[in-house]
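Sample pair:
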Amino acid sequence: MDVPHIYTQNELMCFFTETDKCHFCSECPWRHLVMPVFFRLLFECGLRCSEARLLLVHDVELEKGCLTIKESKNRNSRLVMVSASMLKRLREYAEKVHPFPDESAFFFPGESGRPMTLGNVYNNFRRFLWRAGISHTGDGPRVHDFRHTFAVYRLKAWSEQGKDLLARCSRF
């Protein structure tokens, strides 16, 4: 069993600083816009990589700040609310990438209107890790560790707020 890597605040800051430096590439014309938002969405909402990759334009409610995740693990669907800061990023991103939205288009487009590939996500992830000075071994960190980090930070915040963790976690 893989041991999750829980990113420190400093690692997250360094990683996202590197995603923000992503530059235009004619081979992947949206990469410099997609990557900073994509990876933040994984962390800030605790999404699985496939859930974010397969989001369609109509799954992202920019008025309400809500994502519709359809038939994810075990064919479950759910709604995910985004923070105000994430919603601002999503809106700015959508204005640039989807100025005349096709509701059935992938929100994070890959080549020829298809979703980004896992290989594309992973290659960019490794590049950002390296540039951020975060050591990568065969055991991690992995893209999925953003989801684990989200969960740990959420539990920590609830605990610091005096929330009943058993009641909060029983929903999951």
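The beta strands are 60-61, 66-69, 78-81.
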